[in-house]
C-alpha cells in the first residue's frame, strides 16, 4: 500500500512528506483521465465480455506503450509481470494472465476511430495550464515521423505488386477450379533476386528488369480483370478491391514514368500503405522521408500538434494557423514567435507586424538605429527554437517510440504519433508537478 501511495505522490502517512515518484507515476499524475475518457467517448465493457481493460485502462495502455518503447507482444509480457504497469493501466490481474497479445492492437484501432486531436489537445492544455509559463512565447517547426517501411525503388514496388497479384490469381483459380494462366513469374522473380545481389546495379540491368516487371504486371492486371468479369458471382473483400485499385494506379504511374518520362504526382510508394507519400525534406543525409509530416508548436517546452498530414505540404504557409492554435489553447495573445527561414514569406512578415509579434526573422533592407538590442533578442529566440524544439524532435523519436511508426493504417499511425508526443509532454509536466509539491513541503 505504501508503494501505491508513493506511486501517486500522495503524502506519506508517517512523516507527511511527498515521496519521490517514478517516471511512470509522474506521467500518471499529469494526465486528466476522466476528461480524456469523455473526449474519446469510451464506455465500460459489457458484462461478460473478454475485454479486461476499463476505458481509463485503454488510454493508459497507449501511454504505457510509448513510455516502454516495446512491441505489442513484449508490452503484454511486461504487463503480466509488473504490478506497477498493471496499476497504471487500472488492471487487477491477480493470478490471471493476458494471453492475447493482439489486444494492444485492438485497443489502438478502437481509439483511432474516435481520435479528435484538437479536442484532446484542448483538454490537455487546460489541465497543464498552471504549469506553463511564458504562454505568449511560442516556437514552431515541422518534422517527419517516418513509417516502418523499406526503401521504395521502382523494381521493389513492381515485384511486390506482381507477387501479390500472382498469389491472388492462384487462389482464385483454385477456388473456381479453373486452370492457372501461364506466366513467367518465377523467371522474373529469380532475375530480381540475382539483380538485388549485384553490388553495382547498372542502369541497363535496372531498365531491363523494370520493363519485364511492367509487362508481367500488365498481364496479371488483365487476367484478374477477366476473372472478375467472367465470374460475377464471386465476391471480394473491400480490402482486396482497394489493393487492386492501388496496384492499377501504381502500374499507370510507373508505365508513364518509364515509357513517356512523365513524373508521377501523388506517387505511390507502398501497395500496403497507399496513403504514404514521399516527403522531401532537403536534408543532406535524408533528402526524402516516408511518413507523416507534422507541424508542431511548442509552449514552454511542451509540444502540440498544429497540423498532421501524410501528403507533402509547405509548412511556411501554416504560421497564421499556428498562432491562432496557440491562442486557442492558452487563451493568451502570442507576443514572441520563433521559426526558421521557410516561414519568412512577405505575408507572414505582414501578419506578425500587424499583430506586434516579435520574431527571429532576418530583417530586410536597411537596419534601423538600435538594432543591436533587437539582434540580441532574435539570437535568443533562435537559440530557443534550435535547441529546445528541435532537440525535442530527437528526444521523441529516440525515447518515445516515434523513430519508426509500426502501425498498419493511417488512423493508427496518427494515434501512434499523438500518444508518443504527449507521453513526452506528460512526463515533463509530471516533473514540474513534483517540483512544486516539494517546494511547498520545504
Outline the structure in words:
- The chain has 442 residues and is an alpha/beta fold.
- 55% of the residues lie in helices and 9% in strands.
- The chain has 16 helices and six strands.
- Strands 1, 2, 3, 4, 5 and 6 form a six-stranded mixed beta sheet that branches.
- A hairpin with a 2-residue loop joins strand 3 and strand 4.
- The longest helix is centred in the C-terminal third of the chain and has 32 residues.
- The protein is globular and about 80 Å long.
- The N terminus is likely disordered.
Q: Strand pairing plus helix content: what structural class?
A: alpha/beta
Quote the distance from N terminus to C terminus: 25 Å
Query: Main β-sheet, in a few words?
Result: 6 strands, mixed
Number of strands: 6
Q: How do the helices and strands follow one another from N- to C-terminus?
A: HHHHHHHHEHHHHEEEHEHEHH
Rg, Cα atoms, Å: 27 Å
Count, helices? 16
Query: What do the pLDDT scores average to?
Result: 89
Strand residue content: 5-15%
Low-confidence stretches: 1-7, 10-20
What layout of secondary structure does this protein have?
Blueprint: H1 2-8, H2 23-29, H3 33-40, H4 55-68, H5 72-81, H6 83-88, H7 103-112, H8 117-128, E1 137-146, H9 154-176, H10 185-197, H11 203-230, H12 238-260, E2 278-280, E3 288-299, E4 302-309, H13 319-330, E5 336-338, H14 346-354, E6 358-359, H15 371-399, H16 410-441
Parallel strand pairs: 1-5, 5-6
Antiparallel strand pairs: 1-3, 2-3, 3-4
Helix pairs in contact: 2-16, 3-8, 4-7, 4-16, 7-16, 9-11, 9-12, 10-11, 11-12
Amino acid at each position: 500500500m505504501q508503494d501505491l501511495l508513493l506511486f501517486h505522490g500522495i503524502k506519506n502517512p508517517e512523516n507527511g512528506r511527498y515521496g519521490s515518484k517514478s517516471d511512470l507515476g509522474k506521467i500518471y499524475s499529469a494526465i486528466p483521465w476522466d476528461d480524456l475518457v469523455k473526449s474519446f467517448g469510451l464506455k465500460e465493457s459489457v458484462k461478460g465480455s473478454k475485454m479486461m481493460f476499463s476505458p481509463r485502462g485503454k488510454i493508459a495502455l497507449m501511454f504505457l506503450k510509448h513510455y516502454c518503447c516495446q512491441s505489442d507482444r513484449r508490452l503484454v509480457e511486461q504487463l503480466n509481470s509488473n504490478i506497477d504497469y498493471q496499476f497504471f493501466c487500472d488492471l487487477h490481474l491477480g493470478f490471471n494472465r493476458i494471453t492475447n497479445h493482439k489486444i494492444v492492437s485492438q485497443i489502438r484501432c478502437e481509439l483511432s476511430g474516435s481520435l479528435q486531436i484538437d479536442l484532446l489537445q484542448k483538454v490537455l492544455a487546460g489541465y497543464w495550464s498552471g504549469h506553463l509559463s511564458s504562454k505568449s512565447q511560442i516556437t514552431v517547426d515541422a518534422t517527419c515521423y517516418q513509417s516502418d517501411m523499406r526503401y521504395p525503388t521502382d523494381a521493389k514496388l513492381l515485384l511486390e505488386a506482381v507477387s501479390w497479384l500472382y498469389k491472388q490469381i492462384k487462389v482464385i483459380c483454385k477456388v473456381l477450379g479453373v486452370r492457372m494462366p501461364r506466366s513467367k513469374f518465377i523467371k522474373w522473380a529469380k532475375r530480381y533476386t540475382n539483380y538485388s545481389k549485384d553490388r553495382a546495379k547498372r542502369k541497363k540491368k535496372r531498365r531491363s528488369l523494370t520493363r519485364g516487371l511492367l509487362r508481367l504486371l500488365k498481364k496479371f492486371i488483365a487476367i484478374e480483370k477477366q476473372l472478375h468479369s467472367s465470374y460475377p458471382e464471386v465476391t471480394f473483400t473491400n480490402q482486396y478491391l482497394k489493393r487492386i485499385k492501388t496496384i492499377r494506379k501504381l502500374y499507370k504511374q510507373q508505365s508513364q514514368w518509364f515509357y513517356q518520362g512523365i513524373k508521377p504526382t501523388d506517387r505511390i510508394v507502398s501497395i500496403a500503405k497507399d496513403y504514404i507519400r514521399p516527403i522531401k525534406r532537403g536534408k543532406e543525409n535524408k533528402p526524402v522521408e516516408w511518413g507523416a509530416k507534422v507541424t508542431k508548436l511548442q509552449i514552454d517546452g511542451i509540444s502540440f500538434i498544429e497540423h498532421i498530414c501524410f501528403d507533402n505540404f509547405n509548412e511556411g504557409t501554416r504560421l497564421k494557423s499556428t498562432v491562432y492554435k496557440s491562442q486557442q489553447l492558452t487563451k493568451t495573445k502570442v507576443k514572441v514567435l520563433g521559426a526558421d527561414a521557410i516561414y519568412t514569406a512577405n505575408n507572414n512578415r505582414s501578419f506578425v507586424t500587424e499583430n506586434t509579434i516579435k520574431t527571429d526573422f532576418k530583417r530586410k533592407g536597411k537596419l534601423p538605429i538600435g538594432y543591436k538590442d533587437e539582434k540580441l533578442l532574435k539570437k535568443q529566440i533562435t537559440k530557443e527554437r534550435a535547441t529546445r524544439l528541435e532537440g525535442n524532435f530527437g528526444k521523441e523519436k529516440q525515447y518515445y517510440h516515434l523513430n519508426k511508426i509500426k502501425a498498419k493504417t493511417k488512423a493508427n499511425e496518427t494515434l501512434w504519433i499523438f500518444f508518443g508526443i504527449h507521453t513526452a509532454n506528460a512526463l515533463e509536466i509530471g516533473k514540474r508537478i513534483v517540483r512544486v509539491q516539494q517546494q511547498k513541503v520545504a
